[in-house]
Amino acid sequence: MIPNQHNAGAGSHQPAVFRMAVLDTDLDHILPSSVLPPFWAKLVVGLVAIVCFARSYDGDFVFDDSEAIVNNKDLQAETPLGDLWHHDFWGSRLSSNTSHKSYRPLTVLTFRINYYLSGGFHPMGFHVVNILLHSGISVLMVDVFSVLFGGLQYTSKGRRLHLAPRSSLLAALLFAVHPVHTECVAGVVGRADLLCALFFLLSFLGYCKAFRESNKEGAHSSTFWVLLSIFLGAVAMLCKEQGITVLGLNAVFDILVIGKFNVLEIVQKVLHKDKSLENLGMLRNGGLLFRMTLLTSGGAGMLYVRWRIMGTGPPAFTEVDNPASFADSMLVRAINYNYYYSLNAWLLLCPWWLCFDWSMGCIPLIKSVSDWRVIALAALWFCLIGLICQALCSEDSHKRRILTLGLGFLVIPFLPASNLFFRVGFVVAERVLYLPSVGYCVLLTFGFGALSKHTKKKKLIAAVVLGILFINMLRCVVRSGEWRSEEQLFRSALSVCPLNAKVHYNIGKNLADKGNQTAAIRYYREAVRLNPKYVHAMNNLGNILKERNELQEAEELLSLAVQIQPDFAAAWMNLGIVQNSLKRFEAAEQSYRTAIKHRRKYPDCYYNLGRLYADLNRHVDALNAWRNATVLKPEHSLAWNNMIILLDNTGNLAQAEAVGREALELIPNDHSLMFSLANVLGKSQKYKESEALFLKAIKANPNAASYHGNLAVLYHRWGHLDLAKKHYEISLQLDPTASGTKENYGLLRRKLELMQKKDV
């Protein structure tokens, strides 16, 4: 038996069943009946989702993964779990003015679990979890689309009927194979969107269960499911901020679908001053008002807690992140925001041109209504207004439900990225389309059903649908391959956004990391040409020029960088290094001090400041600077080594030994520290201990000529001449140009010859 209550979007039970059967019959030529049972439908969708993105399973950590995962101390066991609730997505304290304010502690927690289970930063485990999450979400979409297309009808035992198996399967397949999802699935940081989507959909399905009547406990059951839905919405928000929008979607679903609020009917009654307007069932529905109160209270509570946790104001973005939001004219801002919306819509319709980053000149600003791109705005709003009118005013309740929920899923989750409520830090971002694509799939499936109903060329429509599914699957496979490494990812963006300075910058950085400085310089120069205020490109280019001893141009670039961004600590430090190389010591010291002023915990800058003081023979200041570096970063091997060497060179052997032992306790496997301490112990005539450290260092780094040479000197002093000869010879084989070793080896040979003559 099928009860008549909550027949969402239909006036009576039988018409709703008939209409949904007709819609599914129209799609019968596309989807065979053999895959229609729910289990098989979900199995097919899940496997297809895995196939689409399986190629990314063994990819590297790319792009934002480095900052959010590899450099994020919140993933490591040394960081208390409680810190996750006070840090942003990137591991910075939320109270810091430099924080990105993205609060996603549950996502970071899953990264931490991945790190623990993988035994370190092994990307395969992270990628596999993302692929499985997308597959699970795609399977869940079968149930979600079943509600959107088939409505809510239950058997007497409380089981929901699947009245649109073909429609829901087709829409779920379209969702599973959409290429715009590649960034979320193949990029590990996209897990925030995946987890958010998972709990978003669970929240929606939980809210749907509130309308399943359960005999005597109906009211209590309804309240429980609404509260559970709000809780799941809060969980979604703790995975990514976008999750809170599920409460708005649930409200729209309740009012327009469950409450059967007909806008056309209301408008007509208002125009005719119909007295029956006062007796609208929706306005007198205590259950609806109670649910709306719960949703509103829950949403307000989430926003309040979120604002309190954030501490300071919203994050500060720069003009290059979102140029339209910095335009002086409100008209220019509005035009460009709407153009961005049309680009997002185009990515859903034609996901062929995909890019990891759409900022920094990728999309030039529209500054006049005469710009031909304004046509895209007109096309977008023409389509949206037409769909909204049909969704709100159609007399066909079945069409109203599908279009309303399709538009709801398309628009509501996108609102946080729309710049309407606050400035966002991007122009276009494919990752924010993961949830809105649900609405797109609803509208597209409904469109195919409508076409099938009104045309005789059903085979042609079937071919188009299957072609879209196949092409999208192929595009997913190709795009997943591009996300496997940074080099492929960055180079793939050149054809899409050749004017994007960040694309050229990232290619240059990738080349520099591989040691190809000449090619890296070319891309860095192009990045600076495209964006003359790109301080990070200037800083990296200045670094390479410094290493190539082109100090004058390096100083000019770094000086310009700190002039554009006075609080750019890294550029100040690098400027100090260049000035030190140019023997401009006072200017170098001032640059180092300025860097430390803008970034108080800057161990590398203290290290370089110590080197400057050592060059100036200010030994106490040098030791203090290096000590500061080791306090801030106990594993700073270079600072420890320089302290040992300086104390050794100044004759403070006891102090050098103490520092060396302290350093090795903190970094026990550092062979350079073993070598430095072994030298000190040798001079202190602690030959046995010195020998042990030398041998340990050589075992760790057997091809270091200086290690063998200094061990030979130790044996030479100690009187083990044969061993000294052996290690002198090994050292000279590794480095035949070492003059000191040659001289010592010559002395040893003469000594051995004299000893042989005496023996004779």
Strand percentage lies at: under 5%
The count of DSSP E runs of length 2 or more, i.e. the number of strands, is 0
Largest sheet at a glance? Answer: none
- Specify the overall morphology: elongated
Low-confidence stretches: 1-22, 214-218
How many angstroms separate the termini?
117 Å
Derived structural class: mainly alpha
Helix content: 55-70%
Report the total helices. 33
Computed over alpha carbons, the radius of gyration is 34 Å
> Which whole number gives the mean pLDDT?
87
Pathway: Protein modification; protein glycosylation
GO biological process, one term: positive regulation of endoplasmic reticulum calcium ion concentration
Protein name: Protein O-mannosyl-transferase TMTC4
Enzyme class: transferase
Descriptive account of the structure:
- It is a multi-pass membrane protein.
- Its EC number is 2.4.1.109.
- The chain is mainly α and 760 residues long.
- The chain contains 33 helices and no strands.
- Helix 8 runs parallel beside helix 10 (246-258) and helix 22 packs antiparallel against helix 23.
- The longest helix is centred in the first third of the chain and has 28 residues, at 123-150.
Quick tags:
single chain, 760 residues, mainly alpha, 66% helix, elongated, disordered N terminus, endoplasmic reticulum, dolichyl-phosphate-mannose-protein mannosyltransferase activity, TPR-like_helical_dom_sf, transmembrane
